Amino acid sequence: MIYGLVGLAFVVVSLGLMLGLAVLQRKSPPTFREIPAFTRLKEAIGRAVEDGSRLHVSLGRGGLVSPQSIPALAGLSALRRMADLTSASDRPPIATSGETGIAILSQDTLLAVHESAATGAPYDATAGRLTGLPPFSYAAGVLPVVRDENVSANVMMGNFGVEVGLVTDLSERQDVFTLAASDSLPAQAVIYASAGEPLIGEELYAVGAYLESGPLHRSSLKVQDLLRWGLIVFMLVGAILKLLGVL
User: Fold this and answer.
1) What domains, with CATH codes, occur in the chain?
2) What average pLDDT does range 17-22 have in this prediction?
3) Which of the residue ranges 5-9, 20-24, 44-48, 219-223 has the most confident prediction, judged by mean pLDDT?
4) Distance CA 115, CA 73 (A)
5) CA gap 126, 32 in Å, rounded
């Protein structure tokens, strides 16, 4: 019971910090360190609009009600922003996933962007796809999207296994820009070796801030830093008290 209350308090404090920083930073947005992968992603989005090619966003296969859904939710936020940035194009992004709930949310995200853009073009109901449930079936369903649908940029953000290597390898052989990130350590190892632009660790959750998705995305990075420093101080104080015999 006490651990549940501590977890709830942690979430409430984090949310309060995010909202407070989002308000304070409206007039003077923070600056972040340069991550070359995000700079190249913005360039790839611009090229996709200019040459009429498509973006492909793969959201993995983490269950919607499991901890593995967190990177996919970050990917959905990035999908929303990338769909906004390419709304002037006549070829909307394609989203693939290996979990039914995430697939439905990707369809809803793309539909919401289409309706807000009000371009008059018909909505492509096949833009959000469930390509397969087992790991390698999911990857096998993604391969034709990368190979056959004029994809110029491939963004993979979600829970993957080693099967992600099939997609990143094909993307590299097709000379398709590939940015990839995952919360899975085996997938991170494969991504680091095979993807053109791998993201490591919490860089996965910084995509929204670097794509300028909104003030909450920017403030979330600052809250991560505050919590990280708070944890460091807590550990140091605990170690000192232990050495002094207080604990």
Assistant:
1) 36-213 (3.40.50.11400)
2) 74
3) 44-48
4) 21
5) 36
